[in-house]
Amino acid sequence: MDFLPTLWFILIAILWTGYLFLEGFDLGVGMLMKLFAKNEKQRRVLLNTVGPVWDGNEVWLITAGAATFAAFPYWYASLFSALYIPLTLVLVALIFRAVAFEYRGKAHTLAVRNAWDWAIFLGSFIAAFGVGAMLALSTTGLPLNANGDRVGGPFAWFNQYAVLGGIGVVAFSLIHALAFLGLKTDGDIRDRAAKLLARWLPVALLPLACWAIAVVWINASLAALAPLLLAVVAMVFAWIQARARREGWAFIGLGVFLLAGVAAIFTAAYPNVLPSTIDAAYNLTVSNASSTPYTLRLMSIVAAFGLPAVLAYQTWTYWVFRKRITESHIPAAHPVIPII
């Protein structure tokens, strides 16, 4: 076993887990602004729950992408070139979403404010679906030739696994956001979030569970059965806690489900980082897709100092902004011109 490439394969899995866990609920909150909030004050409550942290959460996406580029350049090159169109859409969606967060409160007409709300919703949905599709395809395979190039047209990547992964991350983000709102809000928003969480949690986690099962089945991995079983147990635990309105434990249960599910997926996929659906001989693995040992050693030294610093800063941020937010905390908005 190649120690450093394997180590970075694990670290990249951890980075994606961190992204899905932290960015998951704020992507979900972005979608819930249209699907859940009843009025302007509730939309502002939802926005304020993630306002101090959403940009920090996206650091995990940047870090995961950068780590893939540096540690496994062939994986990065094949994956990002094969998925050029969907990943470009994800980038555009994240840009519009970020701009909408900043400019929504500056809108002077309801039409403009509504447009920014749609930008947040669509940006969150497209980003969640696109990242889910990318990760699903990275673990189930793409039509790659011996050079690592995609075979077929610009939509050759689109298949059932892309849809499953996309829906899985979207659904997880929504249910994760409901648990998060149970921790960060009170009153009507918290009550309705708790009811929806208890009702829909197992349904929302099913696509992600099916993705994990599919990867384990495709690779016939016995080693992945233990984390897969843990994911199932965590899902049941989270549902029980949600039904008992213990939002904190439900939130933790969702986190364990995600961690165990990702562990099962990456364990089953190992040593492949990007399988080829054309011929297994064309698979990119931790050995043939990795950077030089010197690069990996240098990255390991940087990560040993950088990752704890990021974790410490984000932990401090969440601690500072730990208080619940209610509609009574939201001041009156500046007057706007109604939609005619």
Automatic annotation (TrEMBL):
<dbReference type="GO" id="GO:0005886">
    <property type="term" value="C:plasma membrane"/>
</dbReference>
<feature type="transmembrane region" description="Helical">
    <location>
        <begin position="224"/>
        <end position="242"/>
    </location>
</feature>
<keyword id="KW-0479">Metal-binding</keyword>
<feature type="transmembrane region" description="Helical">
    <location>
        <begin position="115"/>
        <end position="137"/>
    </location>
</feature>
<keyword id="KW-1003">Cell membrane</keyword>
<dbReference type="Pfam" id="PF02322">
    <property type="entry name" value="Cyt_bd_oxida_II"/>
</dbReference>
<keyword id="KW-0408">Iron</keyword>
<feature type="transmembrane region" description="Helical">
    <location>
        <begin position="83"/>
        <end position="103"/>
    </location>
</feature>
<keyword id="KW-0813">Transport</keyword>
<dbReference type="GO" id="GO:0046872">
    <property type="term" value="F:metal ion binding"/>
</dbReference>
<keyword id="KW-0249">Electron transport</keyword>
<feature type="transmembrane region" description="Helical">
    <location>
        <begin position="157"/>
        <end position="184"/>
    </location>
</feature>
<comment type="similarity">
    <text>Belongs to the cytochrome ubiquinol oxidase subunit 2 family.</text>
</comment>
<feature type="transmembrane region" description="Helical">
    <location>
        <begin position="298"/>
        <end position="321"/>
    </location>
</feature>
<dbReference type="GO" id="GO:0019646">
    <property type="term" value="P:aerobic electron transport chain"/>
</dbReference>
<keyword id="KW-1133">Transmembrane helix</keyword>
<keyword id="KW-0812">Transmembrane</keyword>
<feature type="transmembrane region" description="Helical">
    <location>
        <begin position="249"/>
        <end position="270"/>
    </location>
</feature>
<keyword id="KW-0472">Membrane</keyword>
<dbReference type="InterPro" id="IPR003317">
    <property type="entry name" value="Cyt-d_oxidase_su2"/>
</dbReference>
<dbReference type="GO" id="GO:0016682">
    <property type="term" value="F:oxidoreductase activity, acting on diphenols and related substances as donors, oxygen as acceptor"/>
</dbReference>
<feature type="transmembrane region" description="Helical">
    <location>
        <begin position="196"/>
        <end position="218"/>
    </location>
</feature>
<keyword id="KW-0349">Heme</keyword>
<feature type="transmembrane region" description="Helical">
    <location>
        <begin position="6"/>
        <end position="37"/>
    </location>
</feature>
<dbReference type="GO" id="GO:0009055">
    <property type="term" value="F:electron transfer activity"/>
</dbReference>
<protein>
    <submittedName>
        <fullName>Cytochrome bd ubiquinol oxidase subunit II</fullName>
    </submittedName>
</protein>
<dbReference type="GO" id="GO:0070069">
    <property type="term" value="C:cytochrome complex"/>
</dbReference>
